[in-house]
Amino acid sequence: MTHLSIAELGTILSIWAHPDDETYLAGGIMAAAVAAGQRVVCVSATAGEHGTDDPVTWPPQRLGQVRRWETAAAMAVLGVTEHHFLDYADGALSEVDQAEAIARIRAIIDEVAPDTILTFGPDGTTFHPDHQAISQWTGAAWELAGRPGRLLHASMTDDHLAKWGSLYEQWQVFMTDERPVGVPREKMAIAITLSGADLDRKITALAAMSTQTSSAMAAMGTAYWELNSDECFVSAD
Hints:
Blueprint: H1 6-9, E1 12-16, H2 21-35, E2 40-46, H3 60-78, E3 82-88, H4 98-112, E4 116-120, H5 129-144, E5 150-154, H6 158-170, E6 190-193, H7 196-208, H8 210-220, H9 223-227, E7 230-235
Parallel strand pairs: 1-2, 1-4, 2-3, 4-5
Antiparallel strand pairs: 5-7, 6-7
Helix pairs in contact: 2-7, 3-7, 4-5
């Protein structure tokens, strides 16, 4: 299939569970769209206040505030001026009133009138329950809104998983015994590989989220650039 160009994406609504999801999976796309004069609206369901292995140093109130500051810095690097938190509790989206959450997202869709919605697929990429909840809510809201524009799900190519899958296993990225199925690049709706200044901008935005990225960046060195150079999405249809 022919991959969509940045221009064809039009107005973008980017909906995710935690701050850094959007930068890892769509930072380059969002930055390129903004640079081309397109509207980009980004939504984070939570502040990611439980995203640490050291809750003594980083209790939820402290980490949540720091991650909000980190997100503001990352969005500034990417050029995204419209970012919103839904202020749900990190790690507890499965406990949220689904009808209320879907209604909130539907209201955002109605206001933004996006040509393209970017979010997680049903597997949440890593099978994180929060990621999967956002996928479900967004899909339901899109249906209720009359399927405006196109809904695209983040996905990994088969060659990406072949190269980096063992590293993801080492890092225990996947939260169940299930594993994502790699999609051939030619079947993606969007498949871009960032390089040069475009990739540097994305990595700079990720570096701004240091509570989440500093360990991986230090461990991987320049390989971190290559790991995060691809941004790929499949059609929800």
